[in-house]
Task: structure prediction
Amino acid sequence: MESIVPLTAAPQTAPTYRRYSVYREQDKAPVARILSREFFYIGKNTRSIDYLVNLFDGGYAAENTVKALNILKRIEQQQKSYPQVFIIDSEMSLPAVAELVNYLRADVRFRGIPVIMDKSTSSNDCPDPAMLMRIFDDVIDARKADNKLVQRIQFLEKVKQRSLKKSQEKLDILAALRKNATLNSGRRLFDIFFASVAILVTLPLMLLIAAAIKLESNGPVLYISKRAGRGYRVFNFLKFRTMRCGAEKQVEQLKHLNTFGEEKEKVFFKVTNDPRTTRIGKMLRNTSLDELPQFFNVLLGDMSLVGNRPLPLYEASMLTTDEFSIRFMAPAGITGLWQIHKKNRHCMTTEERIRLDITYSQKQNFLYDLWIIAQTPPALIQKENA
Result:
């Protein structure tokens, strides 16, 4: 069983382990800042232990790594507080110490606790410094332990916690990438199948629309513009042409009609009853049939069936901050939360649209995509630009 030895007690001969409890009067506490901090010493140097007892509020001591592991298991069973630092005698066997340190680093409860070597009993034959750096976080002489040691331990704790946080962030990113890779593979197969079927079914209708566009006005059947998709990747975005040729050059003249406001910082541009729209174009927009060529974008891998709306480059260039760039983690899509958001869609603000994009980027998964696809048909007939 664990034996509790008071500060004034003489050390026992060859103890299995000891727990030191130090009680100080408040007005005599030399290190008030480290109240309730405990150490764990591994080794036979009782003199170093005595120095540490005077500095800390309590601690554990074990002769070797095997007994240290037994103490750690007992600490867990008895639900006692964990030590704030492991200090290991330099005379201990390095292979045994390395095995113990690997155990500590593998356990989430101990991996953030600094491991320090006590060199107070070391001989002139110092181990390989590179090996020491792999095992220990720092090297000290316990006989010279003072308040600076406490500050050192606090600093090492912060460094280790920051390192662990970065490591966890990397693991989270890798996990997200693996998840996205699986999601993207399944999504890609679904996209190819669905887009292929859609093109075969709607091909006669697309040919009729192309003929109608040609008959009404001169110019190309398709409107091709550069858009930014996932990861700001630029691609050629396809739509049936719904405006007169040269409509893009009139954007500056129509800024005062922008439903999102005419300020320069406004990201999106849309005009209700746009005077540049042709008669066929108005019908195509009201029925969303102008979007049919985007199934070819899906086949080419530029877009997915479900995703965030691909933005013109001048709009995407205004969304490059960390907060807004999250929307570009999702693929560009034919349909998405914009399209199925039926309530007050005509007066949706820029911030609301960006928020919907970010929401989709964070929640995207195959079942969520299927739900959005199921919600899309009721929203297809609309009286505004999508």
The two ends are 74 Å apart (CA to CA).
